[in-house]
Specification:
The chain has helices at 3-14, 19-26, 30-44, 61-87, 101-107, 109-118, 131-136, 186-189, 204-213, 227-235, 282-291, 297-306, and strands at residues 49-52, 55-59, 93-99, 122-128, 141-145, 158-166, 168-173, 193-197, 219-224, 240-244, 256-260, 268-275. By secondary structure, the chain is of the alpha/beta class. It has 3 domains: 3-84, Winged helix-like DNA-binding domain superfamily/Winged helix DNA-binding domain (Arc Repressor Mutant, subunit A, Orthogonal Bundle), CATH 1.10.10.10; 91-164 and 269-306, Periplasmic binding protein-like II (D-Maltodextrin-Binding Protein, domain 2); 168-266, 3-Layer(aba) Sandwich (D-Maltodextrin-Binding Protein, domain 2), CATH 3.40.190.10. The strands form 4 sheets. The protein has a 5-stranded mixed sheet, covered by helices on one side. The radius of gyration is 23 Å and the shape is globular. The two termini are 40 Å apart.
Length: 310
């Protein structure tokens, strides 16, 4: 039994049993991955994967239990390496941070700037993706919006911390008819083409839920992951934008006006999630506390030991 075999099993499950993707992730060949999996199954005397010919199609019941053990083993191997670096006083390393586009663009820059000043030898690997993809990944610390379709609490391998609450804004060009409506109602918004986030991004679920509850059908003509893209199309007169409050800057967004929409759409909570059981280096604690200053190290440790913060 070796770590390459364990990694092959874990990555096969993570990547939808696509051995080409597994091989790319592990910097090896597809036949090599197949061999590692077969050798471990032979050694254990257990069939881990269901197969259709040579193609993996899923985990067997024993395989599901074995995968949990493999996950723990690989996490502890990583923890051992991180602990050795911490105890030998090495401040270098890599902090992997996965975030939505909105968080990466608007919430993280000052945090990253401050972190780099405190830990200049630590490299930051910043990944941008959808919340569900982030939660399914393997990054050690991952700020992300806890928005539908699945909340972070639904991922048993993560423990998450609430960081801050935010609402949506309605964005229109100067002189738009909506600026004369006070307060703006959902029925008013439905009179115009709307531009907002893709499903699963930046509180989109709360937007859809508000219209559905009011039995109002919106005309969403364009969606995007990126707030700047949404504002660009609003500026072109293609529709009314609905964006996150942190994504609008009155000084920078010339020619656009923002109207508060907290009375229309439920508030959102940005959460930071950490892989359960991970050993956190000192710089990881520092990053978390820069993003969520109210959290103490003791509270972080307690959450990692016992579960999610409310």
């Amino acid at each position: 039994m070796n770590f390459q075999q364990l990694r092959s099993i874990r990555e096969a499950a993570r990547r939808g049993y696509n051995l080409t993707e597994v091989a790319n992730a592990l910097f090896t060949s597809q036949p090599g991955v197949s061999r590692q999996i077969r050798e471990l199954e032979d050694e254990l005397g257990v069939v881990i994967f269901e197969r259709n010919g040579k193609r993996l199609t899923g985990l067997t019941d024993p395989g599901k239990g074995i995968l949990k053990i493999i996950d723990r083993l690989l996490i502890e191997a990583e923890n051992l390496q991180q602990a050795s670096l911490e105890y030998t006083g090495q401040n270098s390393g890599t902090l992997s941070v996965a975030a939505t586009h909105t968080q990466a663009r608007y919430a993280l820059p000052k945090v990253v700037q401050s972190f780099r000043a405190a830990f200049p030898e630590v490299r930051i690997a910043l990944q941008q993706s959808a919340p569900e993809h982030i939660a399914n990944g393997s990054c050690r610390a991952r700020p992300t919006s806890a928005s539908p379709p699945r909340r972070l609490s639904q991922f048993p391998d993560l423990v998450s911390f609430p960081c801050y609450r935010w609402s949506h804004l309605i964005v229109v060009p100067d002189g738009h008819p909506l600026l004369s409506r006070s307060p703006i109602r959902l029925e008013n918004l439905a009179e115009f083409p709307l531009i907002t986030y893709d499903i699963g991004f930046t509180g989109r679920g709360h937007i859809d839920a508000a219209f559905a509850k009011a039995d109002v059908k919106p005309d969403i003509v364009l969606t995007a992951m990126d707030s700047d893209v949404i504002k660009q199309y609003v500026a072109l007169g293609m529709g009314v934008g609905i964006v996150a409050s942190m994504a609008f800057d009155h000084g920078r967004d010339k020619g656009l006006r923002a109207v508060e929409a907290s009375h229309l759409f439920a508030a959102n909570t940005t959460r930071l999630a950490v892989r359960k059981g991970a050993y956190l280096r000192s710089y990881a604690y520092h990053f978390i506390q820069q993003f969520a200053p109210e959290l103490t190290r003791a509270e972080i440790d307690a959450a990692l030991a016992g579960g999610e913060q409310s």
